[in-house]
Amino acid sequence: MIRTITIGSCISVQGVFERQQANGNIVVRVGSKTYEGKPVLLT
């Protein structure tokens, strides 16, 4: 499943969902790298 996250105030990353952290952040994978950030909610 593809998910979008925000890192900092203006950087967005879109990648394959890996896991959800206890603090509410999610981890996505882009190639061989993983990124953690706040999920972007669609309204």
Describe the structure using short key phrases.
43 residues, mainly beta, 4-stranded antiparallel beta barrel, Translation initiation factor 2
What does this 3D model show about the protein?
The structure is a single chain. The protein is mainly β and 43 residues long. Helices cover 0% and strands 65% of the residues. It is built from no helices and 4 strands. The chain has a 4-stranded antiparallel β-barrel with strand order 1-2-3-4. A hairpin with a 3-residue loop joins strand 1 and strand 2. The protein is globular, with a radius of gyration of 9 Å. The mean pLDDT is 95. This is Translation initiation factor 2.
Summarize the structure.
With 43 residues, the protein is mainly β. The protein has strands at residues 2-7, 11-20, 26-30, 33-39.
Query: How are helices and strands ordered from N to C?
Result: EEEE
Structural class: mainly beta
Strand fraction equals over 45%
Helix content: under 10%
Spatial ordering of strands, largest sheet: 1-2-3-4
Number of E-type strands = 4
The unreliable regions are none
